[in-house]
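agent: user wants the full assembly modeled, not chains individually. Plan: 1) parse entity lines 2) check alphabet per entity 3) run joint structure prediction 4) return tokens. Steps 1-2 passed, two entities, 1560 residues total. Proceeding.
--- entities ---
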Amino acid sequence: MAQEKTVTGTVTDADGFTLPDVMVTSSSGTEVFTDSEGNYSIQANEGDVLTIESLGMDVVTVTVGASDVYNASLRQSGAIELEGAVVTALGITREKKSLGYATQEVDGETLSATPVQNFADALSGEVAGLDINQSGTMGGSTNMIIRGYSSLFGNNQALVVVDGTPINNGVYSMAGQSIGGGGYDYGNAASDINPNDVETINVLKGAAATALYGSRGQNGVIMITTKKGKRQKGIGVQINSSITVGSADKETLPKYQNKYGGGYGGDGTSFVTADINGDGIDEDPVVYVYDDASYGSAFDPNLMVYNWDSFYPQLPTYMQMTPWVAGKSTPNDIWNTSLTTVNSASFTGGNEDGSFRLGFTNHLFDGPVDNFTIKRNTIDFSGDYNFTEDLKVFASMTYTNTKGKGRIATGYEGRNPMQGFRQWWNLGVDMQKQKDAYFLTGQNITWNVTDAESLAVGYADNYYFNRYNNFETDERNRYFGNVGLEYQLTEWLNVMGRFTFDNYNELREERIAVGSAGGQGWIDAGGAGEYYFMNHRVSEMNYDVIFNIHEDLTDNINLNANVGWNLRVNERVGNSAITNGGLKIPGLYAITNTAQALTEDNLSQFDTRKKVDGLFANASLGFWNTLFLDGSIRTDRSSALPIDNNRYWYPSGSISFLFSELIDQDWLSFGKLRGNYARVGNDTDAYQLINTYVFNPGFGEAYMATSELTSNNPELKAETMEEIEVGLEAAFLKNRISFDVSYYNRNTYDLLTPVDISSGSGFGALWMNSGDIENKGIEARLTIVPIRSENFTWEMTANFAKNDNKVTRISGDNEFLQLGSMWNIQVGATLGEAFGTIRGTNYVFDDNGHRLVDDRQTLENGSTNPHYGQYLFTDNNEVIGNMNPDWTGGLRNTLAYKNISLSFLIDVQKGGDVFSFDTYYGYATGLYDFTAGLNDLGNPVRNPLDEGGGIILSGVKSDGTPNDIRVSASDANNPWGYRSNFAPEANHIYDASFVKLRNVTLSYSLPESLIKNTFIKNFTISAIGRNLWIIHKNVPYSDPEAGLSAGNIQGIQSGAHPTFREIGASVKIEF
Amino acid sequence: MKKMKKYIIAILSIFLMTMGCTDEDYANLNEDPINPSEVPAGFLFANATKTIFDQMGSTSVNRNVFRLFAQYWTECQYTTETNYQIDNRSLPDTHWGIFYRDVLFDLKNAIELVENQEITTDFTPAVQANQLAIIRIVEVYAWQQLVDTFGNIPYTEALMGSENTTPAYDDAQTIYDDLISKINWAYENLDSSAVGFEDQDIVYHDNIESWKKLASTIKFKIGMRLADQNPSLSQTLVTEAVSQGIFSSSSDSFSLQYENNNTNANPLYADLYLSGRQDFVPANTFVDNLNELEDPRRSVFFDSNLVDDDGNVYYEGGIYGSLNNYSLFTHIGSYFYAPDIPVILMDYSEIEFLLAEAVERGYSVGGSAEEHYNNAIRANMEFWEIEEAAIDSYLTQSNVAYSTAPGTWKEKIGMQFWIAMYNRGFEGWTVWRRYEAPTLNLPAESNADIPVRFTYPAEEQTLNATNWSAAASAIGGDNLYTKLFWDVN
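--- prediction returned ---
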């Protein structure tokens, strides 16, 4: 046994400043802390390992050798690391340099710096190859795609794993919500993860990196490591507090015209006439407020009219005339500021036998519209304890309670105010008057009634009535965490048994008040009110047993291996119900308050259960710390697949070569070449093998049932993904410049998809192994530190990712697999093109690529051609857009001067398309500014043709000469909008490119000298900004990122919500 | 320490064993606990039958636009469908899909279930035959409806589920031939001494004689459809059917009485009332003709919302195919807003009009054309509860009476037949297709000709391309103006 001796040293930070209160532990069990000068002194044996750790810093380990002095320099964690440990699949910690695949880390500090509703939003632009898309509905879901869409119908979302616990990230919205059919986006469940508890995030991109997760890891894994207790003196306390104010970005709201009032323009007027004032002359102008468009009469302040506010006896304006003018207050005025406050406290502690961390976070969001709040409370606890030298127990548990109220509905329905405000609006309506009318009466005093006598609600409710009466509430109680034992069987072998769980119960309730417009939600309420609830329990449990082998075979050859078994159990059990025929008693929202008996139409029940078990083995060999070889194999068995085909195998292998070990040059700090190959198998959802029937409501004495729309298939087999990846990492000039670049090619085969089939078969679709997709691309990161001096550091990190996606096979006759459709617009996979093509009618082009106009004056039947001078369009749908971006990138700059640091991120997307139902309808209804502008002659474009109005569309006639036919734009049948097939749907496809200043953080820490003699260890205040500036975009009136929901259908905007600019401040105190 | 190791290994092995499942356990876990994999045939039969009535009675612009095609009604703010653009809302796909998936496929499965059902003392061979015959009758109605909408359609290769996802199209005339033999089989196999579907029979409530009469009436109607195309077959079918016994009063109608609740309401209740929308007004095409005839049915067909300065109700239809301000035109009558009104697929009035035509064509069906014409109008007016005196006087009007009304027999019958088919848009449109009468308007915004068929579903072009293009060329082009095989004039 070696001699015990006193080892001393000084601990400094990267800039050379000494660090007090740093814990130094030796592997023989002694523990000391550095003094105020950063010095420590500890008794240790030769061969002991000293662990030097401090909160917020990376851990450094040193092996005690012959020397008695070991100085250490700690780096702030989250700084770009080239060496050191990272957490890989299944929580296995590996030396980063030994990995033969791409990973990218994000520091928890970056993440929690700017408060977001969903932790994933904070990752936008930070990681090459991770495409984050916020749906734009505040509190809604976030789409997380790594390396493109590789499954057609299956889940493409990255798997989120928190400390080894896979988190269910389902959305479970109403069918059709994601393509614009209406409904709420309740957010995906990963929003329950608390950014303040996150220590680091490691994004595992490729199949080789995630092979140990089996099919779960097919879409990449976002590994979250939460903050843990540390061995330290006393109890560590950290307090974070932030407040953020959000306001709508005007660039993402409509720009309204203010020249013409309500109407469709068929008769050119906004009015009907009647005798209102009783003078016996029925020529009083009454605004025809049933028209939800703005193609009516030109405003004229000298014209006195009866408008909606003169119809209601409850209003002081009853029977009064008002001037015919545009509403002073437009729908853009409904947006207030939002307020987000996040307060959290955490306590950490530990000694040689164990450690713990307890955290509490309260997150309050007060939305930018009336009656909208989201409240979330999170308590998390983690701890570990060493029973003996060899046996360790660990456990962690997070409890989250989320309560939402008054979320804004999405898509094409009345509870989404933006449906009306972007698509169907009468600009003669003054929103302030609507507001006053609601607050005066509490009633649904809407501008849109069928007629002045019946006052029956037309299409639209009073917005404020809608907000306060037709709202949803939701509550989710979630528990996730794990418990396990780790036992060191021998020096080289340990075994871990672990149970991880993620379980939540959620109740969603939606209300429609008596007296609201029909067609609000699910089935037509007919103004009689509705109540809906959905109650479900979603759970995932994993049982893992993993043997880990760690052995130095020789001095220069090391073996890391593990063998394990996993069982995963997924369940979703619940039910939903909706009242039938309205409510018996207005205002009482309970299912028993249904006016008519509930039937099969009103009830549904879900009970899906699935088990997958797997066995896996993995081995990694390291040679001379220079060459690392990895191999793994896994087999899974799924209950969702037929017995004969329920087991599938897949291997992976990778190689990592540190060439910098062989090149001894000052300028080269680090260099690594890596490559890998992996296969992953994937199963499908439960109950897709045997056909079943569904019950319909009985009629008279008869019972009813019908076959399902989609045929199941007992012949299904697992789909497989194959990927090869090569990468190069290097750093130069003492890490002042570093980069990491990867190329990958992944093919997914036998995609499990419900393929549309001819309805003549009796089914609309058939589950099949139906096609192949190829994704290939490059990801790159470049970090440059232009300046690093004692007081000033400037660091720049750029990310870039380009993914090419192509559908390479579709079985049968199909050339297109539809994922969803809304009216004539289809989103799906087109053979030979990208997954996520958008199809609709297109322009017809001549050989030179010019748009052709219809120059036939008369039709074959001799009547005049109403399309004379309008664009020709294709009879059938063509590919008119593609939701996938060409490339994405991010540029983060961090500047630190003494105690002040400034960090900002520019987020870029090039390409990708969106189809806008907002302009499709809104251009026809004449809301937008340009529909009331001047034409090339300088006349109002809405003037009749014989008064110099109308426009000449840019294009050519059939003989190739430039178009010179002037067409009318004086009513809703104009050449821009949806009506009468005058404009092809391709007219509403927009390039979704953007450049955004995503976030800015400016922080100041109290200098060491000021707090030296207090109990405070760190005091930081920051100013934060998020979504501050859309520097560039091509989509008019909305954010190109605005969408409807996370999921496989993107690229559709309908009733898009605006984007919110958030500005705030935060304080962090540690003591 | 050694002991501890053993314990842990033992615990782990137990853990592994208990968590392991056999393949059979896995297969059992994958059985849907909510939805049945088998149901009685009657459930499918009743559901399919109701689905036909729902589809044919609807006026949702996403499902059924035949009332607009026939120019009974026109649209107010949204004028796409009245201008005969049916692709925007995928109307051919919907109509086709409902008939194949929700009607014919369920009926086919019901037939298989009945054929394979074990004979018992209650389920005798006679009951089995009755059930099969009844399903066949509904099936023939549905197939004919599809043929009369599209022309050639998948038939022999249809409804095979995953075994044939790209069914070839059959020639429409060949399908008609097979329908004739099916309806004959059904007629011959009905036995009124045995029960049929009992409570699952939502139309005739297990009256086998009524089904028998329906079978021969459907044969009669098929016969009349063929009058121009195959006169000798037409005459044979019609005279056979008449001798077997066809509808003789409005109580024979193939109709479904809906219920006074939201769930089982007439589809118009959702379209017109519950939606709260004001999408439709009666079209000028229809209103002008009824005004000209001073037709007493106007008070039922239309609302009396327009009153002139003298306090008299007048009727003015919206301009067909144009933007129309709802408040300025006559509205649809309040009758159509009630939940419990029937949807009628075939009725006595319709049969009498066809009998009048048969007489004109020289078929020996008894009676004169005028008698049948008058019976038809009277039956229809009685259905709409027009007073007898008003009916009598109407029938004697010179522009109504068969002897004096203007035009050829096709124009005379066409006009009154068209009026009588109000609320039965498909038949109204078909009257125009068969008689080229009455004269309909060109829609204001598109000036497009009036279609004579539906185009095939857009999805057939992508999902069943080879067969679709063969069918398109076989019928002479997949467009709205390709005439059906029986539409030879």
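agent: reporting back. Residues 915 and 1052 of chain A are 5 Å apart (CA to CA). Residues 77-83 of chain A have pLDDT under 50 and may be disordered.
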